[in-house]
Amino acid sequence: MLSNLFADIPKRLKEEQFDDLFKGETIRIERILSQGQSSPASGWYDQDENEWVMVLEGAGTLLFEDGREVTLKKGDHIHIPAHTRHRVTQTHPEKITHWMAVFY
Prior knowledge:
This protein has 104 residues and is an all-beta fold. It is built from no helices and eight strands. The protein has strands at residues 17-23, 28-34, 51-57, 59-64, 69-73, 77-80, 86-91, 97-103. It has a five-stranded antiparallel beta sheet with strand order 1-2-8-3-6, with no helix packed on it. Strands 5-4-7 form a three-stranded antiparallel beta sheet, with no helix packed on it. β4 (59-64) and β5 form a beta hairpin. The two termini are 22 Å apart. The model has no long low-confidence stretch (mean pLDDT 95).
């Protein structure tokens, strides 16, 4: 089935939007749309899966439990091994940030 990553993008987002693009037995590909959202201050992502994530538009900053902070902008991508605790500290407040995440 043909689809487009940039289809059905709203002009404004009140909350993050998560869309599964593909799910297999050992892989999941997800489109995430953010606009000014961040992870709750009290919570960390601590996933059982490895994650490869790329910013297609906009920008977002990841904070890792070890104190490392990484800002991703258009075209940047990063691999996050399973159980590497991290959170999103900021996304662009005016533009919608388009993330593509591959979990495996």
